[in-house]
Design brief:
The protein starts with a strand and ends with a strand. Helix content is 40%, strand content 30%. A three-stranded antiparallel sheet has the order 1-5-4, with helices on one face. By secondary structure, the protein is α+β, with helices and mostly antiparallel strands. The radius of gyration is 14 Å and the shape is globular.
Length: 121
């Protein structure tokens, strides 16, 4: 059963060094700091911001951005790390899978999230 669905879009140029600490978790900041170009850094952070906003919309309640860590599989598919999932479901109850997707296009980053209960699967 679908528990929630969310989508968010962000103008990439809105992202700057002043809001990186608010948006990114410690693990994500390590990845961010590994990028050489400012544009790549902005795209990465904007995508994470959009994804976290989409996740928050799924639960219809605020979750601190820094408590959500979005990593990537080898094929580039984004996923929420285990610590973040545990924190979220301890706050909101139940077990579920959170599926996310992130995309970038010139000036914008967009993300969608869907939360699906594990019960009966």
């Amino acid at each position: 059963m679908i528990r929630g669905i969310g989508i968010d879009i962000v103008k990439i140029d809105r992202i700057n060094e002043n809001n990186i600490k608010k948006i990114l978790s410690i693990k994500e900041r390590e990845i961010y700091n590994g990028f050489k170009g400012n544009r790549k850094k902005q795209e990465f952070a904007a995508g994470r911001f959009a994804a976290k906003e989409a996740i928050i919309k799924c639960f219809k309640s605020y979750i601190p951005y820094s408590r959500i860590t979005i990593l990537e599989k080898e094929n580039g598919e984004p996923f929420i790390d285990a610590d973040s999932s545990e924190y979220i479901f301890n706050q909101f109850g139940g077990e579920a899978d959170i599926h996310i997707t992130i995309s970038h296009e010139r000036e914008y980053a967009i993300a969608a999230a869907i939360v699906v209960d594990k019960c009966g699967m």
